[in-house]
Amino acid sequence: MFVCRTCRQTVQSATYVQWPSRACVTAGRGSFEQRRGVHNTRVQCQSLRTRSAEENDQKFQRPMAQTTIDEEEVKKFSNLAELWWDEAGEFEALHSMNELRVPLIRDALVNQRQQESEGTVRPSLPLEGFQILDVGSGGGILSEPLARLGALVVGVDASEENIKIAQAHVMHDPKVARNIKYIQATVEDLVGTEAEKFDAVVTSEVVEHVADVPTFVTACCQLVKPGGSIFLTTLNKTYLSYALGVVVAENLLRLVSPGTHDWNKFISPQDLQYILDQNDFSTRLLHGMMYNPLMKRWSWIKNTSVNYAIHAVKAT
Amino acid sequence: MAMSLSLLFRRCCPKNRQALHRLFSTASTSESSDDADIVISGGGMVGASMACALAYSDSFADKRIVLLEAAPDRGDFHLPKRYSNRTCALSPSTAGLLSSFGAWEEIEMMRSQPVRRMQVWDSCSDSMIAFSQEDMTEPLAWIVENDVILGAIMRRLRQAPNPVDIRFETSAKSFVIPHVSESWEEKSKHPWVKVELGGEKSIYTRLLVGADGSKSAVRAAAKLHTVKWNYEQTAVVATLRLAEAIDNNVAWQRFLPTGPIALLPLSEEFSSLVWTTTPEDAKHLLKLPEESFVDAVNDAYWHERDKNALADKAVDGFSQLLNNIMPGGTAMKQLPPTVTGVEEKSRAAFPLELMHASHYVRPRVALIGDAAHRLHPLAGQGVNLGFGDVECLTRILEQAVAGGSDLGSLNHLLTYETKRQRHNLPVVATIDGLQRLYSTDFTPLVVARSLGLTAVNSLTMFKNLIIQRATA
Prior knowledge:
- The complex is a heterodimer of chains A (316) and B (472).
- Chain A is built from eleven helices and ten strands.
- Chain A has 316 residues and is α/β, with parallel strands linked by helices.
- In chain A, helix 5 (143-148) links the parallel strand 3 and strand 4 (152-157).
- In chain A, helix 3 crosses helix 6 (160-170) and helix 8 (187-194) runs parallel beside helix 9 (213-222).
- The longest helix of chain A has 25 residues, at 92-116.
- Chain B is α+β, with helices and mostly antiparallel strands.
- Helix content of chain B is 40%, strand content 25%.
- Chain B has a single domain (31-471), classed as FAD/NAD(P)-binding domain (3-Layer(bba) Sandwich), CATH 3.50.50.60.
- Chain B: It is found in: Mitochondrion inner membrane.
């Protein structure tokens, strides 16, 4: 039983955030809003979001620069951010995948730059000067390390909630925040204005959630500069990936919540390479990845039957 | 007026909005807060060397490191004529770490004494074991005074390419650790660790390294559980003058039932005493006049009162057997030097305990050195484990920076914990086991340990393995 912070009535179970009390709903101060699987003992009504005019005036009188999010929303999304950013929580596998993804992207881009020019690079900021688009950035798990290495990252996600969570999390670290911009949009929306603008486009663990893969990948390809790179990590469509990636991972070991992956949406590397090829990309690297659930670590393997990563470069 | 100010800022610096938000939100309270990448709490040998290792590392060139030390700034270190009574036995791997930032060369320029041979024997029987590196050219360890070590490290720290913010006479009043401290829930819920320095000053840091000794405040704030054991023993230290100037490169240790007495070489004429004994005995020793104290030390090394006849016979028979199987394999027993004087005011005592933290890390917190583990000094391993922690953590943090991760991220901190616990726990357990084994004069145990020691003494390969493990 938990207590609504506004009207002090006891409310329903803690699996729902923003579950206002009956009194608040009756008073028209909020509606029932469901959040999946979020455990939060600090329950509050929607009422805190709607403020009176006086409160708004008071806010303006404080000498405070305005940010793009207001304080109450920040608090709400900070709590949700804890779920995304709990390294031992639901997204554990994504956090540990950074051990493979970030060096892959970093080394590929640094090599690319070395081949092109001789410019001096600060050793602690190897990706300085690169513009990277992170498609399906989620909570910013991959965007933040890339930004910390010096890249200018644009994180794109179709879910507004994810964007706000990512912004709320990165807000506290000014060094990283000045290198990231989160946009709520789909990739197709960006093609109109940002075509051929990015040194690299990264879509990690996104392709298996997309409805129309060829259109999605084509849109991603169009956003890459000539000579730039695209990085994709996803799951293969094989019997083994069904057994390990869906049955074992979701139902037996609960590494991800059940229903996360739909095997029919998985795509084989050959199909993906075909789409990339049609968009003038040549594959530089195709490598399998394996997750060890005991050690909670990913490692590179030759076999691409379950998880794999592709790095392809656009023709100049 | 205030409203137009905010509008002005909005128009002028749209990109810095987020940075400004933080600036303004802190200015509206009376606190002044500071930002750091790593805060090291505790500027002793281990804490200072952690700061030094990070300062000399390329990966940390643009990172802000703060070192908090409660003691006042003693300026540049001047080598005193008299030897200090607190010394350490540094292993070759520690020497490697210290030379990576140039502190080892400073120590060698000041004073250090290499140990080329170690002899350990029992008072209850004739068994003994002697360690030495194969060709007697590489030292097993170096005996260096604690002040010299710290002085050398601080000197190098002040000259580091990436300047470290060293704050003397500063110790944290409290720590607010996310998800752990009670005060965190109530206040701003900032995701970083807040180190409160008192007087409304505080530092927000991505990673807090606790190097503040066995009574660590960081460990307490992080609510890390420890396994403790009070040995009911006190170590008496002193600087002793030897009867004659010798090539002093042997460390002598005799196990008495009350505890081991160790003589560590400092120079041709002086040696450092570390005598572990019961608290009553220690008090008594400190009160003795100089002459009596010297007599007590010599007596401890030479007396035969505890000799167990059965053990003697057993060892005799066993060593004869071994000589037949492996002739010439056993090292010969040498005689320790006689002590003629003790430096005045060099006698001191401190209590001993075993302490080991069950976890070394929390999100954004890591423990190194005595804050994580405290051992019995009988094998001289304590500070070497601490320096090993420094080396491991530095390497892991460098890898984390190369991978763009947040410094306080639990992933790599857990790697550090696993690596170090895998290394430290066997050492802690072995030394504790040895201490218990040798603190009795119960005949069966005496016979067993004497035979065991004699056997190990003749197995050169096994001894080399032990040396490797101890110096790694």
